[in-house]
UniProtKB/TrEMBL annotation:
CDD domains: PASTA_pknB, STKc_PknB_like
Residues in PASTA domain copies: 440-507, 508-575, 576-642, 643-707
Catalytic reactions of this protein: L-threonyl-[protein] + ATP = O-phospho-L-threonyl-[protein] + ADP + H(+); L-seryl-[protein] + ATP = O-phospho-L-seryl-[protein] + ADP + H(+)
Annotated transmembrane regions: 419-440
Keywords, in A-Z order: ATP-binding, Kinase, Membrane, Nucleotide-binding, Serine/threonine-protein kinase, Transferase, Transmembrane, Transmembrane helix
PANTHER family from the UniProt entry: MITOGEN-ACTIVATED PROTEIN KINASE KINASE KINASE 20-RELATED (PTHR43289), SERINE_THREONINE-PROTEIN KINASE YBDM-RELATED (PTHR43289:SF34)
Alphabetical GO biological process terms: negative regulation of fatty acid biosynthetic process
EC number, as in UniProt: 2.7.11.1
Domain Protein kinase: 10-276
Protein name per UniProt: non-specific serine/threonine protein kinase
Residue ranges of the region described as Disordered: 384-409
Length: 707
């Protein structure tokens, strides 16, 4: 993408972020000459016409959202210049960092600081909710914080983008993955994929918990495990991790993250009102405010704890088929859908199956016959005269001496009643026997084989009359490789006699080696790190004489280092050869120039040495180049002065003055004359100064003595 011109307007620059659906690039709007951020959807998303139309519709809705804490949307387009649809969104460029960087550096942080960071976010969400727009992917990475030079303003990005991808279903155009980072997904998004403003409120509550504690409320070894916790576990109170957090701050987190969305604030505007109340209490320095805490805590009614008649009390399952795609797990192996096997639990994390009431057998014809007989018993008892039920002096229940005549005949009493009773007894016995057989007797208890190797575990199962098969191995931080970390059914669970128990063997701790990235571009290095389950941290530029500009020089930690999944790797990128600025050394000693230039890695060459009447010997007459920028190993050439040229004074004694003067001036000397001490007026030279044979600089003055 770098260097491309989208729709003949947006010149793509370096990539500044990468996500699951798109990459963000710094770009130049060539028409308006301004810097913008361009979010380019990953290849394939733009091929679906229905998705493209949905993306345009949601981009327009987001563009109408005008709020100081919302990243502005400028344009949307679909570029086909390279033969494929490149769907992109042009947004306001916010130079700075994200809330994720603040979490890494400052969390856990005081409640006042956490709420100050969140208030602009909740304000922006409130404006969106009033406009009927739901964010659906609130997380620290989508909260941008401008640097101080640009005012430090906090802005929320990516409004409406998740909805554009998910439309009216929990599946995306990319093949069924739930939209939203799993750590911030509201339970209802996991269960049925439907979202309203309260899903954003839940995500804000999770972010607040993370700011206060420095950790996410629900952790797990896979996205499925994290999502399961969101559905079946409450977000814990932050004060359990960071003692000293006021009770009303705990209550605000509990209210925003209630698993029952009816107990959360209706939208971000209501949440903002609660946040202001908590901020006021913090400004007053209250360590505790039971009245405010009680008012903020989610309100539960007795009906919330009593299931409706006929409703199953089993926790509501969620769409494991969609969520399992996040880790490429077969939904049947995820442990989150019913497959008919007894006591089914997840192979990733064991959760007790809620106890059910006594099974109700299917209604059969004998039961329908027995029911009227049982119902007739109270009526017959009511028709019996009081005297026949109890009389003074008799024990209760004893029959009187004279019983009242019975309207029915003995035949009817002795045949229908006993037969129906017998049938009922036989039916109940049959049901009990069937339940005993199908529910207990034909099953055996799965022996405990955790911690054994595969051979020992298989032998243990064979001794119990069961068969063993190896399932998909899994990583474990505390169980050595090759040992059993789980079984299906789990130890103590029920399995059919002669049935099969699936063993999950440990792969040992999940670790990845830092790949060799030297020589790759930053984009290539980020892709390589993502492919090895490692995270890109930061990049720093360094001068390099051997690595071309923009390529990786080295990584920190270095290549081959073994790290946990998700660990960050920093890149050192080449800025190219280091430029060296030179100055003009003309008229200065060559020796000084040579020392200074060679110290900076440049070569010094003397191309010529010439005499100069104006430049002292050893000084620089000229250099090439005189100024500018060079690089290590480049050469600077000099012309050096030999000083003035020296000429030998000839013998001019006894020569006529005119002849001597012509000779000396021809050699480049200046000539002066003076009368000798004995002057006879003959016009001949008696001596010269400097004298014959001396070497003097050309241009020097020779004084002639004339007799």
């Amino acid at each position: 993408m770098v260097g491309r011109l989208l729709e003949r307007r947006y010149r793509i620059g370096p990539r500044i972020a990468r996500g699951g659906m798109a990459s963000v690039y710094e770009a130049t709007d060539t028409r308006l000459d301004r810097t913008v951020a361009v979010k380019v959807m990953h290849p394939g998303l733009g091929d679906d016409q229905e998705f493209a139309e949905r993306f345009v519709r949601e981009a327009r809705a987001a563009a109408r959202l005008n709020h100081p804490h919302v990243v502005g949307v400028y344009d949307q387009g679909d570029d086909t210049s390279d033969g494929q649809d490149t769907v992109f969104l042009v947004m306001e460029y916010v130079p700075g960092h994200t809330l994720r960087d603040v979490v890494r550096k400052e969390a856990p942080m005081p409640p006042r600081r956490a709420l100050a960071l969140l208030e602009p976010v909740v304000s922006a969400l409130g404006a969106a909710h009033r406009a009927g727009l739901i964010h659906r992917d609130v997380k620290p990475e989508n909260v941008l914080i401008a640097d101080e030079a640009h005012g430090g303003r906090i802005k929320v990005a990516d409004f409406g983008l998740a909805k554009a991808v998910s439309a009216d279903t929990q599946h995306t155009a990319t093949g069924g993955v739930l939209i939203g980072t799993v750590s911030y997904l509201a339970p209802e998004l996991v269960v049925d994929g439907r979202a309203d403003a309260r899903a954003d409120v839940y995500a804000v509550g999770v972010v607040l918990y993370e700011l206060l504690t420095g950790a996410k409320p629900h952790e797990g070894e896979s996205p499925i495990q994290v999502a399961y916790r969101h559905v079946h576990h409450d977000v814990p109170m932050p004060s359990l991790v960071q003692p000293g957090i006021p009770d009303y701050v705990d209550a605000l987190v509990a209210r925003a993250t209630s698993r029952d969305r009816d107990h959360r604030p209706a939208d971000a505007t209501v949440l903002l009102h609660h946040l202001h109340r908590v901020e006021q209490a913090l400004r007053e320095g209250l360590d505790s405010d039971p009245e405010l805490a009680a008012d903020l805590l989610p309100r539960r009614t007795p009906a919330d704890d009593v299931p409706e008649p006929g409703n199953d009390t089993t926790p509501e399952p969620f769409d494991a088929g969609a969520l399992a795609l996040l880790t490429e797990v077969d939904p049947r192996d995820s442990g989150l859908v019913a497959d008919g096997s007894p006591d089914r639990t997840t192979a990733i994390e064991r959760h007790p199956v809620p106890a059910h009431t006594t099974p109700v057998a299917p209604m059969t014809e004998p039961m329908m016959v027995a029911a009227p007989i049982a119902a007739a018993a109270p009526a017959a008892a009511a028709a019996t005269p009081p005297a026949s039920r109890s009389a003074p002096g008799r024990a209760p229940g004893r029959a009187p001496t004279k019983a009242a005549p019975v309207a029915t005949t003995a035949r009817r009493r002795s045949v229908k009643g006993p037969v129906a009773l017998l049938l009922a007894i036989l039916l109940v016995a049959g049901i009990a026997l069937g339940a005993w057989w199908f529910g207990w007797e034909r099953y055996t208890t799965t022996p405990g084989v955790l911690g054994l190797d595969e051979a020992a575990a298989s032998a243990e199962l064979e001794d119990a009359g069961l068969e063993a098969e190896a399932g998909e191995p899994a990583y474990s931080e505390n169980v050595a490789a090759g040992l059993v970390i789980d079984s299906d059914p789990e130890p103590g669970g029920k399995v059919l006699d002669g049935g099969t128990v699936t063993l999950v063997l440990s792969l040992g701790p999940e670790r990845y080696d830092v790949p060799e990235l030297a020589g790759q571009t930053e984009d290539q290095a980020q892709d390589a790190l993502a492919a090895t389950n490692l995270a890109f941290g930061t990049s720093a530029g360094r001068w390099s004489e051997t690595v071309p500009e923009g390529q990786v020089i080295r990584t920190s930690p270095k290549a081959g280092t073994t790290l946990k999944p998700g660990a960050t790797v920093d890149l050192v990128l080449s800025r190219g050869r280091k430029p060296i600025t030179i100055k003009d050394w003309t008229g200065k000693p060559l020796a000084n120039a040579k020392v200074a230039l060679e110290r900076r890695g440049l070569e010094v060459s003397v191309t010529s040495e010439v005499h100069s009447d104006t430049v002292a010997e050893g000084d620089v007459i000229s250099q090439d180049p005189t100024t500018g920028t060079l690089y290590r190993g480049d050469t600077v050439s000099f012309t050096v002065s030999l000083g003035p040229e020296l000429v030998e004074v000839p013998n001019v004694e006894a020569m006529g003055v005119e002849a001597a003067t012509e000779l000396l001036e021809g050699l480049g000397f200046e000539v002066e004359t003076q009368q000798a001490q004995i002057y006879l007026g003959l016009g001949y030279v008696s001596s010269s100064d400097p004298g014959e044979g001396e070497r003097v600089a050309k241009g020097s003055t020779i004084t002639l003595s004339v007799v």
